[in-house]
Amino acid sequence: MIIRLENLNYIYNPNTPFEKKALDDINLSIEEGDFVGLMGHTGSGKSTLVQHLNGLIKPTSGKIIIDGMDITSKEANLKEIRQKVGLVFQYPEHQLFEETIYKDIAFGPKNLGLEEEEIHKRVKKAMELVGLNFELLKDRSPFELSGGQKRRVAIAGVLAMKPKVLILDEPTAGLDPKGRDEILGRIQKLYEEEGITIILVSHSMEDIARLVNRIIVMHKGKVAMEGKTREVFEQAEKLQEIGLGIPQVTSFMREYKGKGHQVRDDVLTVEEAKEELINYLRRRGNA
Ligand SMILES: Nc1ncnc2c1ncn2[C@@H]1O[C@H](COP(=O)(O)OP(=O)(O)OP(=O)(O)O)[C@@H](O)[C@H]1O
Ligand SMILES: [Mg+2]
Q: Could you tell me the pTM of the whole model?
């Protein structure tokens, strides 16, 4: 287990007219190597939750254990935690500030006090991982880049810290379809090739269904649902109650089954549906 949350509560602006309970008794475990999708309506507490995981926000009450370390204790070393848990914010490009891409990505490793040579290696590797050409781009200004590229620089900056856990808060928000596919493709590859634990906050059912193996659904500051991807999407009625949907293709297969066709209704992607339909039609043809 790499992350464990126990009775976590968080209140913004306590004892003021603006008091707001954003997290309400959260209990969760995340295993090393999981790829977790964090879903929920706007305002359900997703960003508040992930900011607790690298010590950026201190809980009002409750425990946060990261890789065996209680980060809410007084002795907790925040620097070590931030290195272990890399958080890419919503709209991270707003936090680029150095005059070159190299310097921006090197910022975190430099703060760790690493040697120049190691920093160089890490920046190069991080740029490769997000698909940015090192030689071509390292001395350019991050502000000359496209929206999707800027975001990849921000992700590279976090990867250069070599975190065990990578948290991405809505990494595709506001990008065009091409930029979105590029980022998601890179994230998937990172997961497959680097064995890193990933938490992906997303509003897109399709992306979640395609990428992750576990889902956490937040609703009004609570964990409303939690489980394997397929198990969660099988509970379409519960998701609908919360006001969230299921992937379009899953919904189509459920309807098709409802009309008397003997097909699986737990498919998550277009590819799976295609395969299932071809098999079904073959079975029917042979009958
Ligand atoms: N800095 C803040 N001060 C006061 N209240 C806040 C602050 N940030 C968030 N909140 C409130 O806390 C609740 C949870 O917000 P949070 O940003 O965690 O939700 P979210 O699930 O990330 O939403 P979104 O999908 O819009 O990003 C909301 O009611 C929000 O209005
Ligand atoms: Mg948010």
A: 0.94
